[in-house]
Amino acid sequence: MRRKEKKLLQFAGLFVVALLFLSNVCLWSLYRDRAFENLPEISSERPGGIPVIQGGATRAQLVAAVEPGNARRKDWHDYNAIRRDAARSGNGERGKPFPLTDADRVDQAYRENGFNIYVSNRISLNRSLPDIRHANCRRKLYAERLPNTSVIIPFHNEGWSTLLRTVHSVLNRSPPELISEVLLVDDFSDKEHLRTSLEQYVARFPKVRILRTRKREGLIRARLLGALAATGEVLTFLDSHCEANVNWLPPLLDRISQNRRTIVCPMIDVIDHDNFGYETQVGDAMRGAFDWELYYKRLPIPPELQREDPSKPFESPVMAGGLFAVDRKWFWELGGYDTGLEIWGGEQFEISFKVWMCGGRMEDVPCSRVGHIYRKYVPYKVPGGVTLARNLKRVAEVWMDEYAEYVYQRRPEYRHLPAGDVTAQRDLRNSLGCRSFSWFMAEVAWDLPRHYPPTEPSAAAWGELRSASSGMCVEAKHLSSGSALWLETCLKGRGETGRSHGQVFTLGWRQDVRVGNPCTLRGSVWMPLHPAVLSHCMTVTACRATNCGSTDRIRACFIPALTAAWTAAAQTEQSS
Ligand SMILES: [Mn+2]
């Protein structure tokens, strides 16, 4: 009887997988031309002053050692390429900031791309980057035999130089035998330079192909499209304004070759949107996580997970989104992305929860670094909040079990938002025998509640913040996130009663300051303190509050060194 049931379940599972696969295959109809299928072999003569890419360089590839795993390992560094990079000079080389003049800063430079395209255009497509990896990375050996990869780069109206610098950096800094192909997936761009010029340009690289969608599909389906067309053993997704750094690829592929169910992410470095300088992110190696409004967050690696060798891969609960590598078959076993997700957003949660809960794992690899331009603003129309909300709700409904409630408590508007049919996703979850979200929280994201507790502890205090020395009050001129706080005459002193104005603040459990009282607070509105406020280093009084009616007083003090950090001193006076 039990065996019969098991068989039935297995069949049902297979059926669902087949259905999913078929529905994915339908995506084939989305793109029009698989451009440049049979390209001629290129000569080593490159027009336009473009240096030979991986031009037959003999790489130092001895150093084979037998490690405990019995896999022969070798040094994958391309020392010729490293020497070539070291000899380069010019604007932006070694990831140095471009010397900007005022004329370079005109708004027009940012308008089309969200970053300064004029500056980008004046930096070589083959520019060198600083090797900012941990020193241990230079000595690391990886398996001699690694899977090859298709590099999938979706783009929409990307700038010429930023798109091609992405491609060049991949070709320049990857062992050619590990690159099966580079797939540029054009999500219905209308920029002229991305038509014939691009086709002619990439024709010189036999491994680079362009796929084009027939209508705007959005990032998620564009990635799926690339994944469907890909033939490499591993899928590596990159954004269209990236630069791959020294030896970025072998450390990623090595982890997948050791465990094909591992999704790996490189460290994402920051390419400045003004001057194109190359730097690490604040905090560098951190774990990916989320708050309960489902905003992506980065958490410090907790002491329990810190290793003697900080260059070792570490587990990450949630990926940042755009940059990762995954075994191609494993990606499809996981159902790819939920095709019900629209355009952009939420997909990094879906794939992250899925891989962890369904028998895989996810790691960040410190020895693999890729730079990314974080835009100043998004230059094209992104579909409004509803799409993102709908995507997040789908993810919450399918994967988060009872924890979805914590999201709905913070975003009540999600509760009744229609998220479309999620039956197929739930069936997939069943057929893969995935674990519960509470398992995920207990075993993978166990450090998350330390920073983002599902149930927020009540505020320490709220009320006016009155300077002990000057008697002035802190005021928010504009009640929006990011506007500075100033000192003004206290409203109470001005004869106003005001509880709903810019002089009411809450001192949160995290010792952060938010505008409003605990009942009117919405989300985490971050208010930077104006230097003039900080320099007061004042003592303030505020009403103690576990509820909105309380009027006890406490004294609290700024810690001047930490912007907007507070320390609540002992409770002193009782107010009337
Ligand atoms: Mn991007």
Describe it for me?
The protein has 576 residues and is α+β, with helices and mostly antiparallel strands. The protein has two domains: 14-37 and 72-373, Spore Coat Polysaccharide Biosynthesis Protein SpsA, Chain A (Alpha-Beta Complex); 461-571, no CATH class. It has 17 helices and 23 strands. The protein has helices at residues 2-25, 79-86, 108-111, 117-121, 160-172, 196-202, 219-229, 249-258, 328-333, 347-357, 385-399, 404-410, 412-415, 423-431, 437-443, 448-451, 531-536, and strands at residues 65-66, 72-74, 142-143, 149-155, 179-186, 208-212, 234-237, 242-244, 262-271, 278-279, 286-290, 296-300, 314-315, 324-327, 361-373, 461-463, 473-476, 485-488, 505-507, 513-515, 539-544, 553-558, 566-571. Strands 20-19-16-21-22-23 form a six-stranded antiparallel sheet, with no helix packed on it. The protein has a five-stranded mixed sheet with strand order 6-5-4-7-14, sandwiched between helices. Strands 8, 9, 10, 13 and 15 form a five-stranded mixed sheet that branches. Strand 21 (539-544) and strand 22 (553-558) form a beta hairpin. Helix 1 (2-25) packs across helix 14 and helix 10 runs parallel beside helix 11. The radius of gyration is 27 Å and the shape is globular. The relative contact order is 0.10. Bound molecules: manganese (II) ion (MN). Manganese (II) ion binds next to loops.
